[in-house]
Design goal:
Elements lengths: L12 H5 L1 H4 L21 H27 L2 H7 L5 E8 L5 H12 L5 E7 L6 H10 L3 E5 L21 H14 L9 E5 L5 E2 L2 H6 L5 E3 L2 E4 L2 E4 L1 E3 L6 E4 L16 E4 H5 L15 H6 L9 E2 L1 H4 L4 E2 L9 H8 L11
Parallel strand pairs: 1-2, 1-4, 2-3, 6-12
Antiparallel strand pairs: 4-11, 5-13, 6-11, 7-8, 9-10
Helix pairs in contact: 5-6
Length: 339
């Protein structure tokens, strides 16, 4: 940022190397010495006037820098506490790509102001991998566990849709919200979003969801066998009239989990709204939304559902044949290193 300002620090090595000595009171880099007047030693009055003039110039520059910083996203992380809080709910489970997925997601969340990350492990106990990752991010977070019973876990070669995933973990997060938050509509503005760890998110989606009054919806890229799955709007009313889903379009809400978010107050007002192990595959979204809204209540966002800000990008399962051979010999490549 500073190299674009009027009194910029140039990037030459000799200036940066000696930067500290120039930052002392009255110090200035060689390439900036022409910015200050040459103070005549024989005229203290003239020198005082020049100093006062320079102070005035610096005060003006400080105001400019403050105004510029106020528009910086990272700066907003600490100065904009009035934004509605986004409660991002992420179920996760142990697998070779888990740390990579969570690292990528955490780096997105680091850029989102007023976000509280609720991460729920499908495990009996909190794992050091997830706990250490959360601690390093400095993101406000809650770390929970909710193990899936063995009979509900997907077997290795079963398709993804065969058994519900993340149900108990998302419900655990909803339980935490309802137990820990005492919602006051005048002070507690918030949004609940189910942010899976295998998706890719543009920062715009988080700006969009803060507008939600009930339930907001938007397109999701690369899902359901389509380039984009999206709500279809009435051209006159701009309300949601249908969905372009190619899979089970008869569902009450044929939408992906990444394609909607819920106003916190609305969710807390409906304790019956949650997910279920017993509904058909692909109906989890409809299961929770049916308790909260009708299609007519849905709020189309992302420029009336014409922009894609989230993509269902699953990471390819790594081929670890060499690792399997090592382990047959009692060895492993990740000995004493967390991958």
């Amino acid at each position: 940022m500073y190299h674009e300002m009027t009194y910029s620090w140039p990037r030459q090595n000799h200036d940066m190397k000696n930067k500290n000595k120039y930052l002392s009171i009255g110090g200035v880099p060689p390439s900036h010495q022409n910015v200050l007047p040459k103070f005549p030693k024989v005229d203290p009055e003239f020198q005082n006037d020049a100093v006062r003039q320079r102070i005035s110039e610096l005060e003006t520059e400080v105001q400019y820098l403050k105004a510029t910083a106020s528009n910086c996203r990272i700066h907003k992380l600490t100065i904009d506490p009035d934004l509605p809080v986004i409660y991002a709910i992420t179920p996760t489970y142990a697998r070779p790509v888990q740390k990579a997925e969570l690292t990528r997601l955490s780096h997105t969340f680091m850029l989102v102001p007023n976000l509280h990350w609720i991460i729920i492990e499908d495990a009996d106990e909190k794992t050091p991998l997830v706990a250490n990752l959360l601690r390093k991010t400095d993101i406000p977070h809650t770390h929970l566990v909710a193990p899936t019973p063995q009979e509900w876990k997907r077997k290795e070669k079963e398709p993804n849709w065969k058994k519900p995933r993340g149900v108990l973990q998302r419900n655990k997060a909803l339980e935490w919200l309802r137990n820990e938050l005492s919602y006051d509509v005048t002070t507690d503005q918030g949004v609940v979003y189910f942010a899976d760890d295998d998706n890719s998110y543009s920062l715009e989606i988080f700006d969009e969801m803060r507008k939600i009054k009930k339930v907001g919806v938007w397109p999701v890229g690369l899902v359901g066998g389509l380039m984009v799955e999206k709500p279809v709007l009435n051209k006159t009313t701009h309300k949601v009239a249908a969905f372009n889903s190619g899979w089970r379009p008869e569902r009450p809400f044929p939408i992906d989990m990444a394609g909607f978010a819920i106003n916190l107050g609305l969710l807390l007002d409906h304790p019956e709204a949650q997910f279920s192990l017993t509904v058909e595959g692909g109906y989890q979204e409809s299961e929770i939304l049916r308790h909260l809204v009708t299609r007519e209540d849905l709020e189309p966002l992302a420029d009336y559902c014409t922009k894609v800000y989230v993509w269902h990008t699953r990471t390819e399962a790594p081929k670890l044949l060499g690792e399997m051979q090592l382990r047959k010999k009692g060895l492993r490549s990740d000995q004493d290193i967390e991958v």
